[in-house]
Amino acid sequence: MPETATHVASGKVRELYALDDERLLLVASDRISTFDVVLPTEIPDKGRVLTGLSAFWFARTEDICANHLLAVKPDGRSLECRRLEMLPIECVVRGYLTGSGWKDYQATGEVCGHTLPTGLRESERLAEPIFTPATKAESGHDENITREAAAELVGADRLAQVEAISLALYRFAAEHATKRGIIIADTKFEFGTDGDDRLVLADEAFTPDSSRFWPADTYAPGRGQPSFDKQFARDYCETLGWDKAYPGPELPDDVVEGTRARYVEAFERLTELRFDDYLENPERVLR
Ligand code: Q0Z
């Protein structure tokens, strides 16, 4: 009998459906956002790349933390997941000083209560990765908070647990990626708890939408880094003098093709699987 799915939530580029009381379907579209605006032009297979990468990382980090993945669907773009009680914080790990971390550091010398050495440059690698929680804002612009504020939201013991696990996950994936020429500068996790109150990694894991991927071969601190996946699209948008307000510009075919190729390249480098082989049987990514 075919399964019916009830739509429960939309993200900027993803959709969430309920399959039943205990299972969700997480569908990644081919939509792309740049400068926080979803563009009218899709990147073919982007959703499949992100779904395949998430499934790959879930399979390879099971020993670090249980996760919500139940199955990769034959379409390659959707994951069947366990439905959890979600924690009300975003768990961010930063290995490099960029984005809001760089902003906060320049203003205060601190990021989420971590006092960092003076004189750090933009994009500099941190001596040790730091856990920098954020609140989940409806606007999509999450607000960095201290670990004390995060402990108020989830409890001190749960916070200590998600901090240790987030750092372990980041160290594992960052090391894997660096060996394959991709720097994972930072990443964002969402965790939930199951019926037995056990911590479970949810949402997506180490995709280029939940993380900053940088090409390792051109990395140099002291400036912003190009995005491994989105730089063609950003560069094109910058040539237009677009004000970065809705609606965004259509992308020409060569920018679409170049961007698609970068997503596929990230997938193939990280999974060591040909993307065509993934499309033929998505479960291959689980090894
Ligand atoms: C994830 C989100 C998306 C919109 C809720 N395993 C889970 N159990 C309960 N809730 C969630 C999950 Cl992953 C859950 N989101 C984020 C994803 C579209 C919102 F694809 N919201």
Keywords, please?
287 residues; alpha+beta; five-stranded antiparallel beta sheet; binds ligand Q0Z
Written description of the protein model:
There is one protein chain. The chain has 287 residues and is an alpha+beta fold. The chain is built from seven helices and 17 strands. A hairpin with a 7-residue loop joins strand 13 (134-135) and strand 14. The radius of gyration is 19 Å and the shape is globular. The protein starts with 5 loop residues before the first strand and ends in a 7-residue tail after the last helix. The relative contact order is 0.18. The mean pLDDT is 97. Ligand Q0Z is lined by residues 9-11, 14-16, 24, 26, 68, 81-84, 86, 192, 202-203. The site of ligand Q0Z has 17 residues, from strand 1, strand 2, strand 3 and strand 7.
Summarize this entry quickly.
The protein has 287 residues and is α+β, with helices and mostly antiparallel strands.
